[in-house]
Amino acid sequence: MAEAKAQDKLAFLLSLVPYLVDHDRVAVSEVAAHFGIKPEQIREAVRLIGVSGIPGDTAQYQHGDLFDINWDDFEENDQIVLTNRVAIDDSPRFSAREAAALIAGLQYLSALPEHADRAAIATLMAKLSRGSSAEPSQVAVQATETDSTLALIRQSVSDGVQMEFDYLNSRGEAERRRVDPLRIESMDADWYLRAWCHLREGVRTFRLDRISNPEITTAPITFRAKDVVLPDSLFEGSSDDLLVTIDVAPAAAALLIDYIPDGAVTTEVDGRLRTCIRVSHYHGLKRLLASMSGVATVIDPPEARKVVAEWAAAGAARYR
Amino acid sequence: MTPASSSPRIPVEERLFSLVLALLATDNGLTKTEILSTVQGYRQRYSVSQPNVSLERQFERDKDDIRELGVPLETLDSPTEPGNNQHLRYRIPRGDYELPADISFSAEETTLLNLAAMVWREGSLSGQSRRAILKLRSLGVTSDEPVLGYAPRLRIRESAFDPLSAALEKKVLVRFGYLKPGEAEARTRTVAPIALIQHEGRWMLHGEDQAVMEPRNFLLRRIVTPVVATNAKYAPFPAEATGRALAELDEIWRTRTSIVEVAPQSDADTRLRKRRGTAEVDIGTLQLHYTDINLFADELAGFGPEVFVVSPPALRDAVYSRLTRTAADHG
Q1: Are A98 and B132 in contact (CB under 8 A)?
Q2: What's the topology of domain A242-317?
Q3: What residues of chain B, 197 to 226, have a C-beta less than 8 Å from chain A?
Q4: In chain B, what percentage of residues exceed pLDDT 90?
Q5: Does B172 lie in the same domain as B93?
Q6: A4 pLDDT higher than 90
Q7: Number of domains within chain B
Q8: Which residues in A lie closer than 8 A to residue B237 (C-beta atoms)?
Q9: Do B96 and A2 touch (CB under 8 A)?
Q10: Do B83 and B105 fall within a single domain?
Q11: Is the peptide bond prior to B226 cis by the omega test (within 30 degrees of 0)?
């Protein structure tokens, strides 16, 4: 993906130049903070800009055809002063896909109560369309319903207080949990709250639809999103996890990606992928497998096969 | 000029940046030969005496990469010798490149756009959002610190998303194997993409199926082969088509209902009650909405004995056959 990286660097160079044009003298640290990019990458970009330019009349990249910076100020004081510029004055337009990504994000946000100003959002979408180099590609996201639990989670974060709720785990046991909300994520139609759980003293993932009786407490929050590194995978592994070997149709493998541990070996067996998944107990496994009928099968261990078979058979028996 | 063999390697981004600068600086455009022989990153590898086949290919790829960023790189035909590739001229017209001067974003709007970008957790839209935010920041506006450090984040795990969104931008027909819900074998479809839409959390391609020349929805998750972009262009569809597709899906969702019995206090009881639009019609009996019968049957089958489907019969049969199959596969 070397090309993609170079493309990202180009996008940054084209964004950085107009910013520098607008700032007479600016510290590397300030630019880094503004763009959210590491200072060393800023320096690297500035060094490249400082020697770049156009071939010019002589086609030899003469001095006046190049950008220039105050190199002493840059090397000694970490300050950027553009002393000569060529070709670029203003910020680039958004690409059709960039504008579409932001517009789709705005559509999604527009149903949330704190962004209830629909007119402002519509104006912003129109601006993005006009500021894009081609008609934004069509990406449309259904607005979310306002969920009362989501609203309470937001309140918990904005007021800086813990929240608590009854949580039914997939074993069917209910427990009162007290948490610091960190992030809300959704995958397909399912919503998840990732939070610091004071009962378990660790980061846990909660399905929103298993949360009942949520309440805001008066106890202040201990952890905020910026204090905690959230693993990319939705489900936290533990040393007590059970490993289960399964065969899955290649087309359905994406459904299981969050359950497949790092370093799992995947082989092909009769057109199916054989891999292993990590589950905390078989109660979760049986539900997962029963929802993937015909596309995923447990191979090993035998107890896991049995649990899934019994669960499905008990379900089927209700129709006889 | 230094011979190619001994010249230091010019980083890719330096070559791309130099190409953009050179094409922005020219009014009349530059020919390919002018570009390859003078622009930094090409000139070091240009040969006066030999054909520059690989360098020309490099230039073609670079043009694509640059255009993908939304840079309007134009090709001008020669007025005296139209159709002669050697006389094509390339340029980037400043007016189409620069953000129009009257477009600015307030601190509040910038905050909102930052949040909108954060919605995308991973995949293509997150990359596109990140770039858009870089361009936004080049305007120098700082955002209000959002009170909420987060917005809900969406994950796009479907590998078809990227190639489809690229095809949507280039307006070219795509071909892919599609496993229609309820069918055992995937069939190859040729489709003119109209929009990528997300409904009830599921990503779909809304597109014109070329076999029937009618709009259809394709679940991204059920696209089972790599998406092939063809060279065949199609005429753009009106922008309203996207909103209409979402509205139609909403209407399907509204009209399709099912009655199920749930075991009290079970996982099914807790979760199905929280689904959008659920109504309790009797104690322990819920009316639920759905869009796709096969996807809904998968979901209900996962609840095993906690759910009994009363109606419609097709859904009941679908759940029953799934449970029977799972039991048999694990027997």
Answers
A1: yes
A2: Alpha-Beta Plaits (3.30.70)
A3: 197-202, 221-222, 224
A4: 53
A5: no
A6: no
A7: 4
A8: 138
A9: no
A10: no
A11: no
Q: What Rg, from alpha-carbon coordinates, does chain A have?
A: 27
Let me know whether B321 and B278 are in one domain.
yes
CA–CA dist B155, B123 (Å, integer): 8
What are the tens digits of pLDDT across the range B235-259? 988 888 888 898 999 999 999 999 9
B209 exposure class (CB count in 10 Å sphere: 0-12, 13-18, 19+): middle
pLDDT at A100: 87
Using CA coordinates, name the residue in chain B closest to A287.
B302
Q: How far apart are CA A258 and CA A279, in angstroms?
A: 10
Domain ranges for chain A:
2-84, 93-146, 159-227, 242-317
**Is B267 close to A168, i.e. CB distance below 8 A?**
yes
Helix, strand, or coil (residue A102): helix
CB pairs under 8 A between A and B: 390
Contact B149 A226 (CB under 8 A): yes
Q: Is B311 helix (H, G, I), strand (E, B) or coil?
A: strand
d(CA A89, CA A104): 29
Question: Mutating which of A67, A89, A137 best tests the B interface, going by the most B Cβ atoms within 10 A?
Answer: A137
The Cβ of residue B4 has, within 10 Å, a number of other Cβ atoms equal to 12
Residues of chain A with pLDDT > 70, as a percent, come to: 91
Written as one letter, the residue type at A291 is S
Q: Is B245 on the interface with A (CB under 8 A)?
A: yes
Report which DSSP code applies to A172.
Answer: S
Task: Please report which confidence band the pLDDT of residue A114 belongs to, taking 50, 70 and 90 as the band edges.
Answer: low
> Residue A101 — φ and ψ, nearest 5°?
-65, -45
Has residue B37 got a pLDDT over 80?
Answer: yes
3-state secondary structure of A9: helix
- Give the pLDDT confidence score for residue A237 in this predicted structure: 67
Least confident of A32-46, A100-114, B127-141: A100-114
Query: Any idea what the CATH number is for the domain that residue B212 is in?
Result: 2.30.30
Over residues B20-26, the mean pLDDT reads 95
User: Among A115-119, A162-166, A206-210, A219-223, which is the least confidently predicted range?
Assistant: A115-119
| DSSP per-residue codes, A210-242 | GEEEEEEEEEEPS--GGGS---SSSS---TTPE
Rounded to 5°, the CA angle B227-B231-B237 comes to 80
In the numeric block, the tokens 């046991």 are attached to A173
Helices (H), B76-180: 94-97, 107-118, 124-138, 161-170
* Domain of B263, in residue numbers: 256-329
Report CA-CA distances (Å) from A91 to A24, A52, B38, B230.
17, 18, 26, 33
- Strands B74-76 and B202-209 come out as unpaired
Alpha-carbon distance of B120 to A20, in angstroms, equals 29
- The whole-model pTM stands at 0.74
State how beta strands B202-209 and B214-219 pair: antiparallel
For B123, phi and psi rounded to 5 degrees? 85, -170
The Cβ-side half-sphere exposure at B214, using a 13 Å CA radius, reads 2
Whether residue B159 has pLDDT greater than 90: no
